[in-house]
Amino acid sequence: MSVPDTSDLLSQVALVEEAAEDILADRRQIIDLDKKRNKTREAIRALQKNKESDKSWVCFGNMFIKLPNKKAVNLLEKDYNQLDEELTDIRNKLKPKVNNLRNLENKEDMKGFGLNPLSKEELRAVEKML
Fold first, then answer.
1. pLDDT by residue, tens only, the chain of 130 residues
2. Are 11 and 44 in contact (CB under 8 A)?
């Protein structure tokens, strides 16, 4: 039985650490984007409930702008959809990264990890069958 070379072992550990850090960075980004998305959703709901005035002050970046409520809601909905797309993209890229980490650790792929939820159309079809 041969003793593994120290440099090979260190390079393997470095690869595992790099893959793990990449996954952790993505998870932090998912949390941050999800917080932004929830705040945007709350703002949309607050503007939709606002019946007292036709215009509201909205903060975009580092400036406040007074906009008609409908215009502000439209802009916020666009931001919400963009955040939702970014979250979906990051989540989809996270699965292969986790599988790569497990391969580097010489572990099996997680069973059921690649499952995707049913789409609305698929869910309707299942409900019709039941």
1. 455 688 888 888 999 999 999 999 999 999 999 999 999 999 999 999 888 888 888 887 899 999 999 999 999 999 999 999 999 999 989 988 998 898 888 888 777 766 777 888 999 999 998 8
2. no
Q: Furthest-apart CA pair in the chain: how many Å?
A: 80
Residue type, 99: N
* Half-sphere exposure at residue 70, Cβ-oriented, CA atoms within 13 angstroms: 1
Q: Rg for the chain (alpha carbons), in Å? A: 23
pTM more than 0.85 = no
Ordered by where they begin, the domains of the chain are 6-108 (1.10.287.370)
Helices (H), 50-119: 69-104
Spatial neighbors of 22 by CB under 8 A, at least 6 apart, are: 97
- Both tokens assigned to 44: 């949309």
Q: Under a CB-based contact definition with an 8 Å cutoff, are residues 126 and 118 in contact?
A: yes
CA angle 71, 76, 81 (to 5 degrees): 130
